Amino acid sequence: MLFLLRMLPMGLHFIVAGVLGILIGLCRPFNPDNSRLCARLYSWPALWILRLRLQTDTQALRDHSHACVIIANHQSNYDLFVLGSVVPKRTVTIGKKSLKWVPFFGQLFWLAGNVLIDRGNARKAKQAMLTTTETLQHKDTSIWVFPEGTRNLGKGLLPFKKGAFQMAIAAGVPIIPVCVSTYSTHMQLNRWSSGEIMIRSLPAIPTVGLTLEDIPTLIERCRAQMQQSIYEMDQQITASWTGAAKHALQ
Fold first, then answer.
1. Predicted model pTM
2. One-character DSSP codes across the chain
3. Disulfide check for 168: which of 27, 69, 78, 143 has CB 3.0–4.6 Å away?
């Protein structure tokens, strides 16, 4: 019952945030900081409606003042609300061209200056990737990428695709991993308190001097660091739940 009561305001919120985001985009179309503002519009009210407790340790992300490639694990559609609270200034993301046709959100996504890729057209996809390299090098704008390419549903990191790492090496910018604790299999939206989520950004990994031959090693390094961080956060949350349960029984 509580789940249904939450979904009603969430649906309304999705529409209202989309309309407000489109208005922001129309007032300053394709401004690379639109993504951050729109991400907050979606995130803050949603976290309150869903009663998700968020702990963030993203100093490495906040303090990085130059263009970079940000990579994050991708669990579910709720990532829009969870990660929206930590998107830094002048950051755009890469999405499927089909997103453009999602009512409200798609138009907002396009007006926010995000990169839309036609994955079914190799030539256009390659051109879009070249555009992101130009953005990273000359427009002081960072790119947010989910290197798994699809949602992992909270079942562990999927293999990483090469695109994000090719972009970073081509532009000579660092990679900043952003890790989210496993939440999609633990959220309990039928309870008043739906769960606890941790987000942590890791130190920037430089790519200057690397070549395309270094991509496998770079991918393995980033993935290993993210796996370790996610494991540590999951352990912390489990310990917190266990401690709270013992305290309640005393």
1. 0.90
2. -HHHHHHHHHHHHHHHHHHHHHHHHHHSTT-TTHHHHHHHHHHHHHHHHHTEEEEEE-HHHHH--S--EEEE----TTHHHHHTTT--SSEEEEEEGGGGGSTTHHHHHHHTTPEEE-TT-HHHHHHHHHHHHHHHHHS--EEEE-TTSS--TTS-PPPPPSHHHHHHHHHT--EEEEEE-S-TTT--TTSSS-EEEEEEEPPPB--TT--GGGHHHHHHHHHHHHHHHHHHHHHHHHHHHHHHHHHHH-
3. 69
